[in-house]
Every structure is written in structure tokens, then in C-alpha cells.
């Protein structure tokens, strides 16, 4: 086997709460993360030595700044530093959008390299490598539906919640995650999610209750700075979405639907205004 290609799904946040600030400067989170079928494609080719990365998507670096490169470096280091790879990224997931586009590419590199190198690592070992690369990377290794705590890397997997229609809109501006957390006021988070109630809704597959209860406290920063995010959420609700929220630190906004016709109508309506609009659905956990 000389190369492996994997699909790397995006994620949305069905909820996102910040429970405090840590001594290391990061924030403690409690959030429900959900994979969706919008995905990039990552191809990894085994080489004798060295690293290279190729991606023609705007604003994606083709060097060591790319988190997918960092994933390859971490994998090779864990293998004793021998070997090399060429990485090709075919991207559909928008960047700086709160959809884990970089993190899911990094997870895809880890999975592809594990296959290429004869599966030297089990799932837990691979997750330990992932934690050193980025907070969302461990979730992206398997995806599905999970409660994430800590900085987002302490995962409890939840029952399957696949097959829910999702429309995603990425407005034409990026959002810096460090900027959002730097400007977050822990005493003015707005309405916070009731995480146990949301988990209960997932367990009984009550999409309406889940959609009504979705909250994202980072909207207190991003939506305040960009009023367009609030307008997109209002438009989703007017078009029949069961609920609408910003994903992660933004700027992408999604709506959940239980009706194909309404979801298609919303998709077409948003495409009249925005370039990056995606009609997708929630997907289940991938376990190798």
C-alpha cells in the first residue's frame, strides 16, 4: 500500500458552554459536538523521507503552519522519526468557520498514516497523539455525537444522532478563535445550554427539543461583533428551521430541519446571497 485516501467530515456544535478559565490560560468547555456529511478529502502517500503538503484552497498554508503537517510530524515522531509522506488536501469545508476543517484534516492524516504504516497504534494511542495536535482533533478521529469537556478533548460518546437535515451558511468573513476567547466575558455569556436536557433529547431522538435547546455562549462575542450572524439565524427560523446556532467560534451558522422541502428551500434561498452554503446531514461515529 503506497497511499490512502480518507473523507474528513466537518463538525457543528449542538451546544457550547464555557465553565471557567484554566490556569494554563485555556478555557474549560462543555459542549455537544456533531459530525456532518460535509467533508474534505485527504490523500496521504508514503515516501522514504520528508514531508510535503499540497492544497489549492485559499488561505490554507502548504507548509509546517498547516495542522495536517503537524499531525504527520507527530505521527512520525511517535514511530521513531522514520519515513515520510506527501499529503494532498481537497477541501470543501470553509476555513476559520467553526467547523473544525483543519482539525478534521489532521485527524484524517493520522488515520491514513496509521493504515499506511501497518496500524502501529490502537485507537487510544492515536487519540493521545491527536491531543498533542489540537483540541478538536481527538473528536474528529471518530466523529459522531459526543459530549466534550476540558479544552474539548475529554470525550463521552452519545447515542447515534445521524440523519438529521442540516443547512450550513458561512458568511464572507473569517473569525479568529483566539480573538473570540480573548474577548469572552465569563460574567456576560448570555443564555447557557442545559446540557443534561440536550443529552436526554438526543437519547430519545427528539430533534425538536434538541433544536429548541441549542445554545452557544461564544455568540456573546462573535455575533455581537458581526450582526450578520444574528440575521442568518433569524432567517433560518423564518424559513422553517427547528433551531439555528453559530458553530464553534464562528462564523458559520447552521439550521436543523425535519422536512426536506423546507431544508431545500432554505438552501436555495441562502444561495441567492452567500457563496458558501451547504445542504448536509448529521452522520454517525466511525470506529475502525
Please outline the major beta sheet: 6 strands, mixed
Order of helical and strand elements: EEEHEHHHEEEHHHHHEEHE
What is the end-to-end distance?
18 Å
What is the number of domains? 2
Q: Helical segment tally?
A: 10
Indicate the CATH architecture of the largest domain: 2-Layer Sandwich
User: Regarding CATH, which class of the largest domain?
Assistant: Alpha Beta
Report the uncertain regions: none
Output the CATH topology of the largest domain. Answer: Ribosomal Protein S5, domain 2
What do the pLDDT scores average to?
A: 96
State the total count of DSSP E strands.
10
Task: Report helical residue fraction.
Answer: 25-40%
Rounded radius of gyration (Å): 19 Å
Molecular shape: globular
Structural class: alpha+beta
% residues in beta strands: 25-35%
Structure, explained:
The protein has 2 domains: 3-157, Ribosomal Protein S5, domain 2 (2-Layer Sandwich); 165-281, 2-Layer Sandwich (Alpha-Beta Plaits), CATH 3.30.70.890. 33% of the residues lie in helices and 30% in strands. It has 10 helices and 10 strands. The chain has helices at residues 67-78, 101-116, 123-131, 137-142, 177-182, 195-203, 207-213, 219-225, 227-238, 260-271; strands at residues 3-21, 27-47, 49-55, 83-90, 145-150, 154-157, 165-170, 243-246, 253-257, 276-281. The strands form 2 sheets. Strands 1, 2, 3, 4, 5 and 6 form a 6-stranded mixed beta sheet that branches. A 4-stranded antiparallel beta sheet has the order 8-9-7-10, sandwiched between helices. The longest helix is centred in the middle third of the chain and has 16 residues, at 101-116.
Amino acid at each position: 500500500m503506497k497511499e490512502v485516501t480518507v473523507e474528513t467530515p466537518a463538525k457543528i456544535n449542538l451546544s457550547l458552554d464555557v465553565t471557567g478559565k484554566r490556569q494554563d490560560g485555556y478555557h474549560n468547555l462543555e459542549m455537544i459536538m456533531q459530525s456532518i456529511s460535509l467533508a474534505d478529502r485527504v490523500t496521504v502517500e508514503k515516501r522514504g523521507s520528508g514531508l510535503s503538503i499540497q492544497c489549492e484552497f485559499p488561505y490554507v498554508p502548504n507548509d509546517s503552519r498547516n495542522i495536517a503537517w503537524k499531525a504527520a510530524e507527530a505521527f512520525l515522531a511517535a514511530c521513531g522519526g522514520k519515513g515520510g509522506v506527501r499529503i494532498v488536501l481537497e477541501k470543501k469545508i470553509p476555513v476559520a468557520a467553526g467547523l473544525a476543517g483543519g482539525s478534521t484534516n489532521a485527524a484524517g492524516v493520522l488515520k491514513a498514516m496509521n493504515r499506511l504504516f501497518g496500524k502501529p497504534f490502537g485507537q487510544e494511542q492515536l487519540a493521545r497523539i491527536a491531543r498533542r495536535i489540537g483540541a478538536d482533533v481527538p473528536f474528529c478521529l471518530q466523529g459522531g455525537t459526543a459530549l466534550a469537556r476540558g479544552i474539548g478533548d475529554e470525550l463521552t460518546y452519545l447515542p447515534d444522532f445521524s440523519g438529521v437535515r442540516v443547512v450550513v451558511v458561512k458568511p464572507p468573513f473569517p473569525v479568529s478563535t483566539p480573538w473570540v476567547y480573548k474577548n469572552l466575558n465569563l460574567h456576560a455569556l448570555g443564555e447557557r445550554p442545559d446540557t443534561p436536557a440536550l443529552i436526554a433529547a438526543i437519547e430519545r431522538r427528539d430533534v425538536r427539543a434538541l433544536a429548541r435547546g441549542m445554545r452557544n455562549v461564544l455568540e456573546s462575542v462573535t455575533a455581537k461583533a458581526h450582526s450578520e450572524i444574528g440575521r442568518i439565524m433569524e432567517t433560518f427560523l423564518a424559513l422553517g428551521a427547528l433551531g439555528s446556532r453559530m458553530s464553534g467560534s464562528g462564523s458559520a451558522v447552521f439550521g436543523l430541519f425535519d422536512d426536506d422541502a423546507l431544508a431545500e428551500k432554505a438552501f436555495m434561498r441562502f444561495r441567492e446571497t452567500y457563496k458558501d452554503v451547504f445542504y448536509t446531514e448529521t452522520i454517525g461515529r466511525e470506529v475502525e
